[in-house]
Amino acid sequence: MTMDTSPLLIVxxxxxxxxxxxxxxxxxxxxxxxxxxxxxxxxxETLGLVGESGxxxxxxxxxxxxxxxxxxxxxxxxxxxxxxxGRRTPLAYRRHVQAIFQxxxxxxxxxxxxxRCVDDTLRTHGVDDPAKRRMRTLEAFEQVGLSxxxxxxxxxxxxxGQQQRVxxxxxxxxxxxxxxxxxxxxxxxxxxxxxxxxxLADLQEATGVSYLFIAHDLGIVRHxxxxxxxxxxxxxxxxxxxxxxxxxxxxxxxxxxxxASPSATPEGREERRARREAFRQIHEAEIALT
Length: 290
Ligand SMILES: Nc1ncnc2c1ncn2[C@@H]1O[C@H](COP(=O)(O)OP(=O)(O)O)[C@@H](O)[C@H]1O
Ligand SMILES: [Mg+2]
Hints:
Elements: E1 9-20, E2 29-41, E3 46-50, H1 57-64, E4 72-77, E5 80-81, H2 91-96, E6 97-100, H3 104-107, H4 114-124, H5 130-143, H6 160-172, E7 178-182, H7 190-207, E8 210-214, H8 218-222, E9 227-232, E10 235-241, H9 242-248, H10 252-260, H11 266-284
Parallel strand pairs: 3-8, 3-9, 6-7, 7-8
Antiparallel strand pairs: 1-2, 1-4, 4-5, 9-10
Helix pairs in contact: 4-5, 4-6, 5-6, 6-7, 7-11
Bound molecules: adenosine-5'-diphosphate and magnesium ion.
Adenosine-5'-diphosphate (ADP) binds near residues 18, 33 and 53.
């Protein structure tokens, strides 16, 4: 995929603060979760975002999703200033910028069959004709390797990987231009991780969607990311093309992260081998779901 087009998303000098200390005014503090963060994402590109726990990755994603407010800086999506959108996020922006989080069981309603949750999303976004919704839901399920049967299951009747496929179907059914994937595969076992990463890559190839792919494990982002950004204590400290980061990390912190990444240890090599094996299997046999 060529990526010499102008950026889809431009984040510039982004700063986010949280209020802590509870209800008593004199105990209230503002703490800066991220400060002066800048990067862009091009159409069809995956930008990996890594860093240790608490470094501000989720906050960055949440600001883009308008779940956290920018204290300073700008977020421009397709030329439009996101921070100036007002209290209610416009439906069009919600359609174009979707999210997949770590724990699908918390984002899927346990009382509804999973087909319904994709259906609800379509209805929210104005697809009024039930027959059309059914057709698009089924299409989305097939796109993520689920079948007609899965439509009528409850979340707890599906495996973690299948639940995450439903979350992907829901995120992609509206044909978004950007998906923020926040630790989207971190809770899955190794071979399921490989399958979901492959699925996301295939869907990107087919649709040209961009990903902000957040993970604390460098080994995970490496397979998917065109470029990788590294965060430390609320700051973006390095941004480089994927492989370059692994071969010539300039920031000492990145080198430390690489050292700490399971992929750099002997067990990590084993883990990487297992992941590659999972990738190979999935390319040989078309996604055969249990
Ligand atoms: N809702 C919140 N209220 C107060 N502080 C928060 C909140 N969410 C995150 N933080 C703080 O902001 C910093 C960045 O957190 P986060 O973006 O979740 O990091 P990461 O996703 O990299 O683990 C951390 O110091 C964290 O404690
Ligand atoms: Mg996080």
